[in-house]
Amino acid sequence: MSRASDLPVTWRKSSHSGPNGGDCVEMGMGLSGVVPVRDSKDPHGPALAFSPAAWASFTGAVKRGEIGAA
After folding, report:
1. 13-24: burial string, b at 16+ Cβ within 10 Å, e else
2. If you average pLDDT over residues 3-29, what whole number do you get?
3. pTM of the prediction?
4. Other C-beta atoms lying within 10 Å of the C-beta of residue 47
5. Confidence at 18, pLDDT banded by 50, 70, 90
6. What is the predicted pLDDT for the residue at 1?
7. Strand partners, 26
8. What are the boundaries of each domain within the chain?
């Protein structure tokens, strides 16, 4: 699979995404052992793949304010 749109997942947009689009991240749900992440503005582009533990660590750091927008 070379494109994010080819992955057999249901894509879920970040709850922090506004109604007008913009800088949105989508997480793929439905794969065991991997969390694919893509740019919602490029649904046919690449996806990054994270382990569930790595994704939980990243999102936890964002929620705690340890990682923020540039």
Report:
1. eeeeeeeeeeee
2. 79
3. 0.76
4. 24
5. low
6. 47
7. 13, 38
8. 4-15+23-63
**Tokens 């070379």, residue located:** 2
Stated as kind and residue range, the H or E segment containing 62 is helix 52-63
The length of the chain in residues reads: 70
| Burial zone of 4 (CB within 10 Å; 0-12 exposed, 13-18 middle, 19+ buried) | buried
Q: How confident is the model at residue 3 (pLDDT cuts 50, 70, 90)?
A: confident
Query: What is the DSSP pairing of strand 47-50 with strand 25-29?
Result: unpaired
Q: What is the DSSP letter of 6?
A: G
* Helix residue ranges per DSSP H, 7-51: none
